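Issue 218. Parser rejects a valid record. Input:
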Amino acid sequence: MASSIQILLLSSLLFISLSNAQTSFRPKALVLPVSKDPSTLQYLTKINQRTPLVPVSLVVDIGGQFLWVDCENNYVSSSYRPARCGSAQCSLARASGCGDCYNGPKPGCNNNTCGVSPDNSITRTATGGEIAEDVVSVASTDGSNPGRAVTVSRFIFSCAPTFLLEGLASGVMGMAGLGRTRIGFPSQFASAFSFNRKFAICLTSSTSANGVIFFGNGPYNLLPNIDASQSLTYTPLFINPVSTASAYSQGEPSAEYFIGVKSIKIGDTVVQLNTSLLSINKEGYGGTKISSVNPYTVMETSIYKAVTEAFISQAAARNITRVASVAPFDVCFSSENVGSTRVGPSVPYIYLVLQSESVAWTMTGSNSMVYVNDNVLCLGLVDGGSNPRTSIVIGGHQIEDNLLQFDLATSRLGFSSTLLGRQTTCANFNFTSSP
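Output the parser choked on:
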């Protein structure tokens, strides 16, 4: 039997869905561009928000809880509505407390409103912020091109003060949270337009061309006429029972996406490591998550040492010479004996073995190695210390030119491994509108 709270939330969602999508055109999917900022290595997207609409640049956080934007600096909108205490919006946002603001009323500062903790997950800083609704407009898609813009008239988000932008790329106004919450992007878009609660992300390694995020079902077509959704292998997503955000309430689960890595192989060799670190314990420590805010994969010290030693040994067997470290990387090589292949530098492959030996996420040279100059390339892994919150954080470089589909309803991840082997990249979505 569903509890009365769940029924209230579902009816609230339905109410918000109906009021959100007042349009006869019902998109099957939505699309957003994603660029890579060369100076910070952050992944950025743009939405249109407010009345009149304003382009808003945001850092993409795959595991972020919700949309937050700076409301302190020139937030002007005739359609801004603060969420009143006790409202369905506060309930959906799991907002705690009820506050007054004596410098208002203005966006981010109103009496009798509920608040959450917007989180800059790059700097690990969180603060208090008012929950509100405003208009959000994004492009629909048929999977091949962007189509007409569609509007969610009451998109729930959090205001934040300007200081929370510190550490984010120039020109950014907030962060786009794609995490597993009722007010994350995937749930709100699915609710507004009645499509499946899923999204797919394809980050590009290029700093001059856009990658792509899809909300809703495929196809996910990339030039030259390749439906990347056909390349997916599936593995379960796990919920960490303890929040991994910078600030959270007791009993709140993590909004981030965890997968069940069982072992790691370098080439044919199984890396010897403490496998208990690969599970999430009851305090919420351990496990493997996917992150777009870490530029490179971060591993707990003992895992990092075991993986890098196995990689160095196999590279040496190929006459690949180790050279001095280049920060932030410890393990670097001369490019002299490293051949070039369609899937990146010719180095030993790294396999993350998932629910069975036959299901593995393959990291070829394009995702494992980073060229720091013409003569040196480094293994793009970073030592995360001896007691990190999460044992393995799969970072941005390791997911570039991979299609990842997060299905929140069935709690599974579809992953392609590198698309370079299929002779396409994440920069190959055709962002010119269809005729």
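Fixed in the parser; the record now loads. The chain has two domains: 4-216, 228-428.
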